[in-house]
Structure formats: C-alpha cells, structure tokens
Write a structure and sequence with these properties.
globular, 3 strands
Length: about 575
Amino acid sequence: MTEPADAAVRLTEFGEAYFRTEHTYDPYNATLLGIAEFDHLPGDPSREASERASRELGAIAEAAAALPTAELDGAGVVDQGVLVALARGAAEDAEHALWAANASAKGYVSRQGLVFQAVPAMTIADADGAERYLARIAGVGGMLAALGERYVEETADGRVPTATGVRHAIEQLEGHLGLSLDEDALLAPARAAGDPAVLDRARASVERDVRPAMAALAERLRTAVHPLARPDDEVGIERIPGGEEGYAAAVRRHTTTTLTPNEIHRIGLDELEAMQEQWSRIGASALGETRFTAITERMRTDPALRFRTTEEIIDVAQSALDRAEAARGDWFPDYDITACAIEPISPIDAGSSALGYYRPPALDGSRPGAYCLLATDPETHHRYEYEALTFHESVPGHHMQLAMAQQLEIPRYRRYLDVEACSFNEGWGLYSEQLADEIGLYSDDVARLGMLSMRALRACRLVVDTGIHHLGWSREQAVQFMLANSATPEEHVRSEVDRYIAWPGQALAYMIGRREIVRLRAGARQALGDRFSIRDFHGTVLGNGAVPLTVLAGAVERWQRDVLASA
C-alpha cells in the first residue's frame, strides 16, 4: 500500500512538473506573474510545442487524479483538486490552441501581444537577471518568425483567423516599429537597469533581429493570412475545424464548472433583467433619470462625465485605492502585503488594451504589484468607470488577493495563478466591486452607476461570448446587444467585443465566479446566523489562494462545519 507520505511526495512532484511544463510553454505569462526563472525563454509557438505540452500536462493530470485521496491530509486534498483541474484545463488549452487560429493583438491570448506586455515588465536586479533578459531578447526574433509560420500553417488547415484580429495584430506591430529605438518598450528593462553594456547588447538584438522579425510578421499577416481571414459575420470560433470542441473546453477551463453555453447565455439574460430596479433607483439619485435608455444615454454623452486630463484619471484611481486601504481592516483579516502601485499603460498599447489590468509583484521584491490603467486620451474616458475598475484591480480586488496568495504556505504552482483560475480571480474582482459598495467606498451615486455599468458589462459577456462562439452571432450583432444593455461607450464596446472574439470563453469567468462567491456567502450567513463573520468568510475565500469554484465551495463548507462545531 502507498504510504501517506509517499502520496504527498508524489503530489508535490506532479505539482512541480505542472509548474515547469506550463510556464515553459507560456513563459511570458510567468513573467507577468512575477516568476523570473523562465524569463530567459522567448517561447515556442510551434504546433509541436503545443502538442508536447498537451501530452505532458494531460499525463500530469491523470497521474495526480490517480493518487489515493484518502492518504492525503486536508491541505493535500485541496492541492490535488486544484492540480487536477489546472493540468486538465491547460492540457485542453494546448491541445486546441485556439490562439493560433485567432491571430490578434490582445495581451495574454496573443503571443505577440504577450511579448509587448511582458518584456517591458521584466526587471534586472542582478547579473543573472540581465542574462535572462538578454537571452530572451536574443530569441524574440526567432519566436516571431515561428509565430508567422504557425499562423500560415493553421490557415492552410482551415483554422483561419478573423480579419479584425489580423488587422489589429498588424497595427500593433507597425505601432512598435514606428517608435525610435530610444522609445522602444522592449528596451525598457535595460534602460531602467542603468548598465550601458546591457543596454548596448539589447539594443543591438532589437535592431538587428527583433525589428526585422516584426516587419516580416506584419507582412506575412498582411499578404498570406489576411486575404483568407474570416469576415465580421463569421467571427465565432465554432466556424473553424475543431472550434466547437475547443470552445466547450475553453468554457470548462475558464468557469471551472459544467455549465453549458446555453445555460450561461440564459444566466446572462437573467442577470441583466434583475439589475433593472437598481438602474432606476440609482439613476434617479445620480442623474434624475429612471429609464434605462435615458440613463445610459446621459452616461455615454454628457461631457461633464468625462475626464479632462490624464492626471485626473490617476487621481481618481489613487483616491479610490486610498479609501479601500483605509477600510480594509474591518472587512478582512490582517494581511501584510505591499502597497499597490498605479502605472499608466503605454500609449502604443492603448488601442488593444482593456481599461485596466493588474500585474502581480515579483517574488524577489524587485517589482511591486501594479494596477496598470489606461489614461491616454482622457476626454474619451468616463469618470464613472474608474472607481469600480480600481476596486476590481487593486484593493479589495486583485492586488490584495494575488499579493496575499504569494505569501501563503501552498505549493508554488498554486501561488501564481491568473488565467489558470479565471473564475476565482475574476469572480473575486467583480465581487470586490459590489463589496466596495457595501463598504461605502464609492464617492457618489454617479460612481455607483459605474459599478452597475461594469456589472452589466460582465452580464453582457455571458450573452455575447456564447452568442459569438456558440450561437453564430456576428461582430455587429454582439456590439448592438451590448450597446442596448449596458452604459459602456461604443468605442469601448467594440474593443470589448474584439477581445471576446480573440479569447473565447475567458469573459465568462467574471460573472460566473462572482455569482458563486455571493451564493456561498448567502449560504454561510444563513447557516451560521449570529456566528457569521464577514472577515472570516473573506479569509476563508482567500485563504487557499485561487482555486476552482468546486474546490472553493468545499473550503467554505468545511469552514462552516468548523464554526458550528466550535460553538
């Protein structure tokens, strides 16, 4: 019989194998998560690399699942459940490789987008860091050449990307090529290091290898891929061979549930309907309007609701973050986490970026956790959006959640999870927007309308993502649905829809995760009565790091039993 210690040791080994395999396959995501040991890798976008990763990750999942649960302690049972879900989801993601059939400029899902997002975030704290950075820069040109080969190969097999995504990819490449070397974002870590020798070597690589590879990739996309690309009325991933199965796998991975696309579509419609009373009540207080269409029209068109300067955007975000930090102790256990920095997104990446995103701190302390926000062209951004966004991305949202998770005594494959545990991470972010309202953090009712707008956007995502990739909606059909059911401005709606097209299934995580956290809180409050503590509930939810929703439910149920047993 397997000894208990042996089962735990094997589980640890499988976890390390998953960690190495996943981050070797996607080293740029490792960089964004603050993991430096893969920073030397430029990435391999070939079909062979995807197939190899799928095989290895699938084998890890099956081996971990076969371990006898009865021979693991409570923490080990959680570790096993998380690892099996992560490895299976990652194996399916590599198997279907939807990104390869969906060229785009969107960070996380686009291989070229990851280069422009992750390389500038690298830090050079010592000689080893410098060598890792230089090794990656030296390999980026070859990676981009291989990426072009992969796109052509996929297109030849009928896995044809969308015309919109290809155009955005070309525009991103040309935007970076339009910068001088002194402005090149890929050289930012070398400039920050202050070492002329490192900067000279990196500059030579970018000029000699990387920029020609960018130009060649743009040309290949323009001449070999774009003429065959899918038009705007055929943007769903179900249009390509294997797309239906790939989308089903993406839904499972990003929601960590067994919900079907049809069920998720219905949930989105129900959520939008349930919000109507709040729209009317808060709209009357904030704008003197009770009709949804009148409220959203004012929110989109009233110039008084727009920013005038970049500094105003940053000030609103900083003030919201400061209020959240001041209230944190009343709602959460005491967490010793570093402060969250606020960093504007590069203007070059503004066209393909979300309004904001969170970048976790580096483990060695060389880089703080940062709320990266879009602050260019301030007159195009609305004041009501940025408080809810700040609470989502910083405190009590992703910064507190992810920075705290890095300190937990859990295996490292669980400490650094972002896209791998989307339903938890993004569900927590959306829950944080609602929690901020309960705490009283919004500055006024106009900002609370922004909270409703953000929630409506996430409900629309359930309808639109499944509409595009399961029901055959066109790009314009998705845009018009969102315009009719949210207050999101049209330019942002179109950017959002393009994101859903490029990244099938990911947008479902937010509302599905939030609904589960709210459901678990209501159930715990009812079960525990006067013994319910919101601080302890939040400590339980965050205390295991990011986990699949099924694992989260088990953790909350165990906490409830322990509270009742101690009474």
